[in-house]
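[job 0412] stage=fold_complex status=start
inputs:
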Amino acid sequence: MKVSTRYKVTINLVAWSIGLMLLIPLLGLIMTSIRPFDEIVNGWWNLRNAHFIIDNYVSVWDAGFWRNILNSILIATVATIVPILIAGMAAYGFTSFSFPIKTMLFLTLVAIQVVPQQAVIVPLLRLFRDLHMYDQYYGIILVHTAFALPWTIFFLRNFFMSIPKDYEEAARIDGLSDVGIYFRVILPIAMPAVISVAVVQFIFVWQDLFFAITLLRPEKWPVSAGVTQFISRYNPNWGQLTAAGVLAIIVPITVYVVLQKYYMRGVSGGIKG
Amino acid sequence: MGGRRDWLSRDFLILMMPAFILLLVFILYPIFNTFYLGFTKWDGFTQPQFVGIENYRTMMGDPLFWTSVKNNIFIFIVFLPFVTMLGLGFALLLHNSAVVGRNLLRGFVMLGMVMPLTVVGIVWMLLLDPNAGIVNHVLSFFGIEPRAWIQDPSTAIYFVIIGSLWAWQGFSTTVFLAGLEGLDIEVLEASIIDGANPWQRFRYVILPLLKPALIVVVTMSSIYILKVFDLVYVLSGGESVPMYLSVLAYMVYYEIFRMFKWGYAAAIATLLTVAVFLFSIGMLKKMISERGVGS
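[job 0412] stage=fold_complex status=done
writing structure:
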């Protein structure tokens, strides 16, 4: 298809103006976090007599925000690895065996992909209290794991079905058990799918607010909840607020930038709610 | 495929049990329990008391419930067409091979989707601020008076809509892009040879082929916006959320942690869950028929 120069220039102009507009919010966040309050009031985009400071970051850090960051890293990392291991095992079970309630279980998996977090919270709070899981890291990690299972099993099962049976047969002749085949043969082949799932799940858990504020006390809150402690509706301290915001997004944005390809595949393939 | 019958083996149990148990304990049982608890009067501490449809009757006369429903509906109606059209537009633009630096632009589009919604909230509070906000600054060029968009009860809801749009258009763009990449090039080329102009090509060739992507976008976006919670919570700022901004998902939280009406909260959670399922039935049916059951 031949394309005229005018068309090319126009479409690039349109695309890039939209692209840059989408970048303005992030730019505002960063600029506000590195400038003194009296300059922000005149607009963070106003660069006359601009001073750049790190005071906001220091005060947010000293206010204990480092603890929120560590909480997030711990919760998101474990709540990514554990569900993938468990979902992968179940997905392999689904691919390779037939068993009585398989159809029913599969339909259940399809259906519970859309369950809202609010649908389980009342009974969960009682369960957490009775089992002393409230305000425990492992408690929220187990809940995130359960919520990751339906779509992760789905995604991995589809990928496993595309792996030729020959690999399995060969491994079985070599004397590997089913569990052994899963860990030594299937999982290594499935690495691209596993990374896709991992990136989406990591970012998803990092973003979670509802389970964080309902199942944990503020000392164990991840950054998604921790930033809300700096919010005040009437007299916002923009410097601190935005510095906390920047600190809260560094990790997920880095993960995204490095693994963009896998993230896109995970989002469009996994259909995550 | 598969079809092995030795499912009573130790290996099979090792593979399946952890997932089974977790789903049962943390999702399946709680859902049914929520449904039951919706028929009880319960403060979370004493024993739940069965009261029949009492909670649902209370709901009908509860102004907060109706405010929440109204807000959910309004947000839904404005959000859905915008997120669909933005996603489709961005996807067509970013799929066009004439655009230079498409991968970088895709990164910009996805920005809002990668960060926690609470941070998205902070970003938009900043942009919409009456003094320090760039939105008022830009609007003043057009002679529009600066406003406290978020503090004003009549406009605060747009903060939730705009924040959700900025965060979620990345999803619709991604799904449409995946759809465009999966399109049959030959069909497109055939239509060009047949002399279809760009609009005809879009309307009669691309759009019908994008229907599966469209269904996913509309369904997932409906579910997403029905569950909107984080941006409303952001406005609590240590105090309580202004009640005119409540939505159903927020009301569940409010009744549990502020009012200690756990039975009432369960009833509202049940309604929300039913609504989400109703909106997803079409897509769930399709997923089942496409991906095959039991094979």
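[job 0412] summary: Residues 113 and 171 of chain B are 7 Å apart (CA to CA).
[job 0412] exit 0
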